[in-house]
Amino acid sequence: MNNFLKVAAFSLAVIGLYTFYSVWVIPPINPEAPPKEAVVEEPATVDELVELGESVYNGKGACSLCHTAAAGRAPLLERAAVIAGQRIKEPGYKGNATHAEGYLYESLVNPSAYVVPGFGASGSADKVSPMPDVRGSSIGLNETEIRAIIAYLQSISGVEVTIAPAPTEETKAKE
Amino acid sequence: MALSNKRLSIIKVVFSLSFFAFLLAVYFFASGQPVVSAPVLGALDYPATHGVNRRLAVWMAAQMHLWFAAFVLAVPILVLILEFIGVIKKDKRYDRVACEFLRVSITAFSLTAITGALLLLSLIVFYPQLMKYLASIFGPTALFYALFFLFESATLYAYYYGWGRMSEGSLKWVHLLIGLGLNTAGTGLMFVANAWVTFMMTPAGVDVSGVFNGNLWEAVNNHLWSPMNLHRFIANIAYGGSIVGAYAAYRYLSAANEKERAHYDWMGYTSSLIAIGALLPLPFAGYWLTAEIYSYSQQMGITLMGGVFAWLFIVQAVLIGALFLAANYYLWCGFGRGSYGERYLGYVKYIAFVIAICFLVWFTPHTLILTPTEARALGGQYHPYLGPLGLMPAKNTAVNIMLLFTFLSFLLYRRSHRTPTVAWAAYGKAAQAGLFTAAVINITFLGVYYGYFTNTLYKVASSVPQVATTLFVIVACLVIEAFMHRGAERTEFRWGRMPGRSQYALLLIAVSFTWLMGLMGFVRSAIRQHWHVYGVMRDASAEAFTPSIAYAAKVVSIGTIIFMSIIVFIFWLSSAGREASDE
Amino acid sequence: MRLLKFILINLFFFGLLKAPGLFLGKPIPASIVSMYMFFIVITVLLVMTITDKGAKGLFAPIAALVEDPSKALIRNIVFVIVPVVAAFVVYMQSNDAFAPPVELRSAHPAPPAMVKAYGKTFDLATLENPYRRLAKEGPVAFSALVREGGEVYFKNCVFCHGPKLDGRGHYANALDPLPMPFSGNDTIAQLQESYVFWRVVKGGPGLPREGGPSISSMPSWEASLTEEEVWKVILFIYDYTGNTPRSWK
Fold first, then answer.
1. Which residue of C lies nearest to A29 if distances are taken between CA atoms?
2. ipTM passes above 0.90
3. I need a labelling partner for B21 at 20 to 30 A (CA). Which of A167, B343, B538, C47 fits?
4. Cis link prior to C29 (omega < 30° from 0)?
């Protein structure tokens, strides 16, 4: 019995030390609370749309997690709307978009349609994009949020924002 | 070998109980109805729990089930290996120890089934919608699960009760074959269950809204399935070895006579050797697992390695470092078993020095915790001398050197009972020393040069040649060692001469393994964040938050204590049963 | 005597860990020292207790102190000293309660890709100091710009960052974290000018979350300095300290 007590005390001491270290020695970091499913109000003006796009870009959409210079995992998007217009004319482009806005939309919902060289998933020879479809998976953007993102990208690229605040028949036809 | 009647009846009751629970599981899974898409849940989809924390309840049940399952999957593997060695070496000791392993773990089989049923029950009660969704996809796999379960029960029964009767001649080989069947069934069971778990992390075979495309194999063979199978398989062996080692250590400490001491000393050594041997390839399996997590979702990978959980890997480093230190201490104490051991005692302090340095490097965090005074003196968050030690290349280098020196301890331990007599022994030793030096230089060079003086692309890449160097040197040294000791002058190991202190090292290994499994299991599951099925089905319950490391550590500690207590209880049960039958 | 050896070895390592702080002014943080020492003591203990003889030698003096009747006097002294030392340690630690708490802070957090200021959007990856090329093309004009930057510095920045640009201005001691020194080669010498531009323009309020807890008292200079003035003052701080901006080319 004496041995048993010794062994039990030793084991408890080891467990206690590990607990002590994890609870009191390392800095306490509390993970963020799960994001609230916010009700997205339909933006009334272009500015509101761009504003919504910026908040989705940095928040719910988690775009800035990878699309930063520090991460280096994905192309930078400062001039995305400008590049989009040139890209669709390039011979290497195999996607279905016919105009810059359509290219951005396609890149969001079907990232593998065209992968910027060097940014493909490893081992896919730039055929498969590591980016998820923003409508599904863990991101789950709706159409309004996607249009807001495109508007935001256009605004930071310095081109005219061609997305109307509410979807018109014309833009629906384009998509 | 005979069991007391009392114990037999306990086993029977437990088995029938678990079988009942198991039928429930099969019914549940088989009754899965096709679901159109993953339901979007609200708080009302979760039944009221009347004050029970549903997440904690499921967490505890799952953790208990995993610990027991790991143990009962590993023990038959160890037993089979030992029985096989015994047959090949014609050494009855192995056979006896194998049989004892199996006997002490037999109650754990029932407990695995019970905790499994408990887990399933709590999942159905607390998370009915999730289970409905999973059942709609994985219903057919329940059939495989049932088949494996029945097959395992049957082979376990035959293997255990046939031990005495099938001990001679060709019957022994049949017995070994049954053992192989038992292991296949157990591993198969685990693979099926792994498919369900990994599907929740990296769902495949469903579209973005969770509609199942009908291809069950695709859902089973998702990104994490294969790496998880491998990782759990190896880790289970290490874990089983460590638990049996702890058992032997305790029996050693309370042994009544020399013969018993010698037996448990040998048992502790053999099982801890298996545990440490299985621990060595584990980091590579872990690397594969992490790589697959990254390739499935970068977001998930970043959550795992950076940000919130970065400190968890420092905790992991502390635990694994403690494991290695304990294993080395056990080997050093073992020098006393051989008659030539004393000549190596002088080297211990140098080996210890190197291992300690590596250990310190390994758990040096990149971002330091500073008091304001220190921050002022340093003028920033990073330390000019310690800063580089916080980065990955330094840690990879440290781990490889630590592995090498642990191996050196083992090599010296093996030599403590023999002296080579071949003419070229001096050259052989010189070659080994040369290999060692070259390896250390190469590993350090790779780490320092590629880690700090080239661009980031090579930083991680250098870890592969480092590992290759380590493995190559270990194999090469073992080969030289084997040839050098042909016809060597040898004495028998004197089992049972270990100091009592050394047995606490074995206990520490077992406790640390248990705790570490709990912690790493937590982070594996926690990176799913607020999702039931990652990206497909959201957890809308109030308990959907991601717990902090401190919270997890407390839960894991309590779980470890409960699990250890149950293990102690069933070991006591088995020894009580044996004493009764001996009389 | 093994006990003495044990204590001396541990003291040696403790001294080694303290040395950078005492002699080089770069202390190893207490949190690290205590962690390191915990494992060093354990390792030394393990090494010294491998054989029974060793363990006995190590613990014999302690056992003797407790059990040997002839050592009653020493025993009583030790039994008084130990609680007193413990009390002293507790007292010292509770004294520390007045110090601000330990915290994690990243001094140079990763910058955003883009910064919006002065009604424009700046791309930090490609942004360059528009005056920098003058260093080669027109040295005279360049040194005039540096002089103007110096004026901006001494009208705005000197109060915290100090007349010697060493981060020890009048207000410095009231601030936590301390203002960044520009002298030496571990602050601005490690940074691109675009990064410095971002820090000056956006200041403490513009720090990303990983830079937190964002208690830097650096103001956001966007409202009080023009874009040109910011670029000039950046020229000045590099020029005065003899540093060159980091560049990836």
1. C104
2. no
3. B538
4. no
Domains detected in chain C: 2-98 (no CATH), 114-241 (1.10.760)
Domain limits for position A97 = 42-174
| A147 belongs to a structural domain | yes
Q: Does A27 touch chain C (CB under 8 A)?
A: yes
Count of domains in chain A? Answer: 1
Look up residue A34 and give its two tokens.
Answer: 């799960």
| Alpha carbons A23 and B557: distance in angstroms, whole number | 11
| Euclidean distance between the first and the last CA atom of chain C, given in angstroms as a whole number | 62
Confidence at B332, pLDDT banded by 50, 70, 90: very high
Residues 47-86 of chain A whose Cβ lies under 8 A from any Cβ of chain C = 64, 67-70, 76-79
Find residues 71-130 of chain C whose CB sits inside 8 Å of chain A: 102-104, 110-114, 121, 123-125
Give contacts of C106 with chain B, Cβ < 8 Å.
367, 381
- Asked if A39 contacts A33 with a C-beta cutoff of 8 angstroms, the reply is no
A62-95: pLDDT as tens digits: 787 778 766 567 888 877 888 888 888 888 787 7
CATH code of A92's domain: 1.10.760
How confident is the model over B490-536, as pLDDT tens digits?
888 888 888 889 999 999 999 999 999 999 999 999 988 888 998 88
Of B365, B363, B385, the residue nearest C16 (C-alpha): B385
Handedness of CA C79, C84, C90, C92 (dihedral sign): negative
CB contact under 8 A, A67 and C125: no
Average pLDDT, chain B: 84
In a domain, A24, yes or no: no
Q: Tell me the residues of chain A between 129 and 168 that have a Cβ less than 8 Å away from chain C.
A: 156, 158
